[in-house]
Amino acid sequence: MKSISNEISVDPQGSAGTSQWAMQVGRMDPDAVLRWCEAPEDASDSPVQDGVGSAPVLGTDGLIDQTAIAHAFSQMYLIPVFDPPVDEPLPVDRSVAESIPKEVCEKHSLAPLADDGFTLEVAVACPDGLRHADAIGRQLDRRIRPMFATADVVGRLIAALHDSTNRQDGLLRHAKAAEACDDPSHDERPTIQRPAEQVSPAERPSDEIDAAKRTLSIGAASESDQAIADLLAEAIRQDATDIHLEPAGDTCRIRIRAEGRLSVHGAFSVALYRQISDALKLRSRVRRSESRLPQEGGFTLLRGAKRFHVSLQTFPTAAGESMVLGLRELSAVAESLDALSMDPVQLARVRTILQSSHGLVAICGPRGSGKRATMQAFAAELNDVTRNVCSAERRGTVSMPGINQVLTCEAAGLGMTQTLQVCLNQDPDVVLLGEPWNAGTARLCADAASAGALVIGMMRSSDSLSGFRRLCSYGDSAAPFTSSLSGIIGQRSLRRLCDHCRRPTRPDRATAQRLSLTQDAVLYQAAGCDACDQSGYQGTMYLYEVIRIPDEIDRNDVWNDAGSVTRSASDFKTIARRQGVLTLAEQTRTHLLAGHVSVQDALRGGTVMGSRS
């Protein structure tokens, strides 16, 4: 059992004067807190004089506006605020109570919120708590995700986690936190123990339903907990990307999107759906009582040694509040470029694009086409000590040592555009944008590419040409984008037919004409067998079209000097073909004739080009 007494000690005379700071915060209004935090160490114009400040004095009367103080700290440190509704139960997982003893929580005014085995979320009441949380993270081998909270909220959390009677009368105050910081016995602290079930991911049980239930459980198991656990387990089994919960009349329809297609997966009763909705909102930390406005949240799900981020999107409809759950695996490492299913010519072309010292690289494709995996593979290829690589992401799905991953924090006003600007201020050689471009981020990326950085981003489009046109539509003029564009990678995913049960078929006249085939051509359709779990499909294939600019395409053939697109889609494809680039439509047609994909899937993703011979 290892002691952490030396790791979380606080120097009362530290550079920031943290001990005295914590003592005086309770006597200051939020603006004064920020002014004092930004003042030099030896500043003598302290806003607190003779125990009197512009805000009510913190004492036994408890008149201080703790919420305003928490938001002031959030603004300064760019750390979100944990501010649950007073009239609703706290979203706590009692299993994390073993992570940090009650004595440590009370002494340093902090409380654990969630622990997925990799990241420990901690609520802290004052800046000193950040130091203690970091030390606890080192002791438990966890990455810390801190959140500021009021002292009352931290007290409620401690009571909910450690008090079996769930009493809430032990509310902590900032003054008590300050006294703990200056306590002479500060170094005599209890040891923090790692829970036995969190020793390592490999030792966790592999049963997906039990794992989901453990992660989602906030109290005693209930029918809603079981339903959520079963639903998530089934979605993970199908390798699904989304779960749709849609109320209609006296039932709630369940649909799961797997391999790009939605399918019905039963229904809940309205009464059970209300319980499920409350449980999901509570876990995702959104307001349970709000059903008139869209809300966004999420949580982490454990399944054996794998972690998944489950995002929650709620939106009101005429039939009631619908929900969409998005599942994304939080991979341990990024795949290499060679792991992508590109042919040698495409790989060589991509590596040539990535060797550019500057320019704009667009990864284009519809949702579920694997753009994020391609982005991560590009990052792994570019990650070396000779480059300063920065990424702007909403959530770090893959840990990439050596890359400065900057995460957004909407609660602190750090949206995607602001996060991207933070990356650009770090003198980067390479910038990765982990979310699809919009008008604001696209213009910033184009400016950074023109200034000497290699910028890689994603766009939702059907192919490279439509992605190029959309990129050029983001500004008043297309010139900033056309002048900096270095390469476009278009991609799409297709379900691969099961070789054991695929069924031959003949195209009808309309399909044959569209594909420039005779009606005697042999195509294939899905059937279903035990080998493919009656789905008719086995796995997913990814197709790519890689176009280098300007080396492989003459800019004057595609846009004029004013930066306006001048040629049609067919002209663009003709130019790409002249350089040996097979379009996604051509590749799809090849796989269709080879019996790898069905006619329905091939035509659903876009027009399949007919033979030109």
From TrEMBL:
Domain Type II secretion system protein GspE N-terminal span(s) in chain numbering: 88-163
Highest taxon, organism lineage: Bacteria
GO cellular component, alphabetical, reads: plasma membrane
Bacterial type II secretion system protein E domain spans which residues?
227-602
Instruction: List the InterPro entries hit by this protein, alphabetically.
Output: P-loop_NTPase (IPR027417), T2SS/T4SS_dom (IPR001482), T2SS_E_N_sf (IPR037257), T2SS_GspE_N (IPR007831)
Tell me what organism the protein belongs to.
Crateriforma conspicua
Q: What is this protein called?
A: Putative type II secretion system protein E
The similarity annotation says: Belongs to the GSP E family.
DNA-binding found in the keyword field:
no
Please provide the record's keywords in A-Z order: ATP-binding, Nucleotide-binding
Chain intervals for the UniProt region annotation (Disordered)? 1-20, 179-208
For bias type Basic and acidic residues, the affected ranges are: 179-191
Tell me the GO molecular function terms. ATP binding; ATP hydrolysis activity
